Amino acid sequence: MTLSDFFRPDGRRLSKAGILLLMGPFFLLIGFAFLYPLLSLLSISVLEPQPGLQNYERILDNPVYATVLMRTLWIAFLVSVPSLLLAFPVAMAMVSSGRGMAIFITACVLLPFWSSVLVRTAAWAVLLQRNGIVNGLLQLVGITDEPVRLLYTQGAVVVAMTHVLMPFMVLPIYGALRNIPADYGRAAQICGAGPIRSFLEVTLPLALPGVLGGVILVFLSALGYFITPALLGSPQEMMISTLISQQLREFLDWPFAAALVGVLTLFVTAITLIFSRVFRFDRMLGGHL
After folding, report:
1. Is position 60 within any domain?
2. Residue 27 falls within a domain, yes or no?
3. Fewest C-beta in 10 Å: which of 37, 46, 112, 166?
4. Which ranges in 8-62 belong to alpha helices (H)?
5. Domain of residue 207, CATH code
6. What's the pLDDT tens digit per position in 23-60?
7. Are 138 and 183 in contact (CB under 8 A)?
């Protein structure tokens, strides 16, 4: 087999065999580090303690588990909304700013990746504690007379997860906005459209693929988040990731924990398939493949 078998006649584009050769190590890594452990875990849910679906029936029979799953979906939705509202202006500023300012904004967006999620979550715990900065500011401006409970609440979890996941919303929207020709906005102004109308009828529809890509990235990531809900949330508002950890670490109930993983995987797969059927992922990421 020669190089001509992997390249097209123009010498610059790979053939299908060449693509498979380059993607082979990646597929092996995915299979070894993700698919095999996941399938092994799911097999435990139906084979132990005896073959059957009793672990999944246990989830359906107890309304507590359904409540935890619905709460997880709700918190993922709550995180996605403020992430979108905060990320869109940042992405627009990155596109419309000069080179120096765009680099600065990009560095600010990517800066959280330089520290671990645990460190960022611990920082929010310091800010939101009873004697923290946030409570101090609320009392200083006269909104509250005494410290209020901010830590170990659903609001604390949503705020901290929004801070952690917002970069995953900014980058797809930035990619979509950057691919919109500047002539479109000028053409809309020549036709008499004001800034608001130009944004609603030109910029927003063309940026929608990036918006949808950011929403699904943030939403799916929030579904399986563990560290932030575990540190900032309360036991009364447990998410499914914390419930799975509890079943594994405290009760050592691996089959039931595997069934919870199966249910979560089912929801993630269903949402991904719906988006992949309705929207093209290359457009959602703001690219033109």
Report:
1. no
2. no
3. 37
4. 16-30, 36-47, 54-61
5. 1.10.3720.10
6. 888 889 988 888 888 888 889 888 887 888 888 888 88
7. no
